[in-house]
Amino acid sequence: MQGLEPDEIRALLGLTREFAEQGPRPVLTGRTVATLFFEDSTRTRTSFMLAASRLGATVVDLSGAGTSMSKGETPTDTAQVIEAMGVDAIVVRDKHAGVPSLLHRAVQCSVLNAGDGKHEHPTQGLLDLYTLGESLGLLDSFDYSGLNIVIVGDLASSRVARSTTAGLSALGAHVTLVGPPTLAPRKLSVLGCDVSTDLDAALEDADAVMMLRIQFERGAGRQLAGVADYRVGYALDPERAARLKPGAVVLHPGPINRGVELDTPVADGGRSVVLRQVRNGVFVRMAALSACMATLPA
Question: Do domains 6-120+279-293 and 122-277 have the same CATH topology?
Fold first, then answer.
């Protein structure tokens, strides 16, 4: 997302709207898409598979445990082997930042980033942008000037926060990243946003708030005094949600740790657009696959 111009982002969001409103088109009939996931995933992996299928492509689903990488093969060699079998696109997720770019330089087929380490998650950023546009009535322009968006939680570990913040900033929104100092380092302001430790102040004028889970698997828990203390300062509970202004919406990229960063009444309440995000993820990934692959020679 950090490499896309505003017009490029709006074009992808516009294509997403076409798929959402008009349904799938078999623009990838005869193509093959390989999903190469070296980290666990439910939403991203499944939605990419559904997106490719709805566009008419054949899908080959792979994982780290099911490839020769478990025997020591490098990601580059794995990608080149898959490409040699006639694959037209590789959707890759890896725990290391930069792997999608590495594969892109090693193969001639399309490579789509499904999340790389703490770096980026571009299609998640796009679906967050689309869901905001849909929820706030901005699908005709995708001009987010004047919006105040708050992203809360484990920002140091979050590739989602990086992609979504970059996209929102490009489209004119004002973004505030909020979390305890250990999880919300000031250096994240290079993304063109504010960084704060005061959630209650940030929520006062928020048009939307996106909650993030604590990424314990990346060691974030060691940087906290405890979950109970974290909840006091940074959980979106019913009391905090009730203070949001009318029309403000709540997002979460999932998976949700209910009772930690987001309480069930809020996650399942009228402000929540979490399931819209999931639904829109299929349309966004249809747009991304189509944009990358539809013009390839047969």
Answer: yes
Residue with tokens 């913040």: 165
- Which of 159, 154, 175 is CA-nearest to residue 234? 154
What are the sequence ranges of the domains in the chain?
6-120+279-293, 122-277
Helix extents (H) in 23-158 = 43-54, 75-84, 99-106, 122-135
Report the side by side order of strands in the sheet with 174-178.
194-196, 174-178, 148-152, 208-211, 249-251
Tell me the CATH number of domain 6-120+279-293, given options 3.30.460.10, 3.40.50.1370, 3.30.70.980, 2.170.120.20: 3.40.50.1370
What is the CATH code of the structural domain delimited by 122-277? Answer: 3.40.50.1370
Phi-psi region of 52 (alpha: psi -120 to 50; beta: other; left: phi over 0): alpha
* Cβ(177)–Cβ(218) below 8 Å: no
- Residue 55's identity, in one-letter code, is L
pTM: 0.94
- pLDDT, mean of residues 46-52: 97
Q: What is the pLDDT of residue 247?
A: 97
Nearest to 126 by CA among 81, 68, 167: 167
List the beta bridge partners of residue 62. Answer: 36
Q: What are phi and psi of 284, to 5 degrees?
A: -65, -40
**117 vs 216: CA distance, rounded Å:** 14
Q: Render pLDDT for 161-206 as a digit per residue (tens, 0 to 9).
A: 999 999 999 999 999 999 999 999 999 999 999 999 999 999 999 9
- 49 phi, psi to nearest 5 deg: -65, -45
Q: Report how far residue 207's alpha carbon sits from residue 135's, in angstroms, rounded to the nearest whole number.
A: 10
